[in-house]
Amino acid sequence: MIIKFLNAMKSEFGITVTDVSLTNEPDFKNTYESMNETPDRLIKIIPNLKQN
């Protein structure tokens, strides 16, 4: 799904996305509902991501 989105950004708007990050500001602790992952949890998640 994300690949389709990135391809659409290129074809529709001419934007080439070169980097996608699993987290943004991993040390930031927000007070609202969000994806807050610990470093230990990220270590388990990252190997399961496939690179295209």
Explain how this protein is built.
This protein has 52 residues and is mainly alpha-helical. The protein has a domain of 33 residues. It contains 2 helices and no strands. The longest helix is centred in the first third of the chain and has 12 residues. The two termini are 12 Å apart.
Structure characteristics:
52 residues; mainly alpha
Q: How would you sum up this structure in a few lines?
A:
The chain is mainly α and about 50 residues long. The protein has helices at about 1-15, 40-45.
Strand and helix map with partners:
Elements: H1 2-13, H2 39-45
Radius of gyration, in Å, reads: 14 Å
What's the end-to-end separation, in Å?
A: 12 Å
The total beta strand count reads: 0
Structural class, please?
mainly alpha
Contiguous low-pLDDT stretches (5 residues minimum) are: none
Helix content: 25-40%
Q: Please give the count of helices.
A: 2
Proportion of residues in β-strands: under 5%
Overall shape: it is extended
SSE string: HH
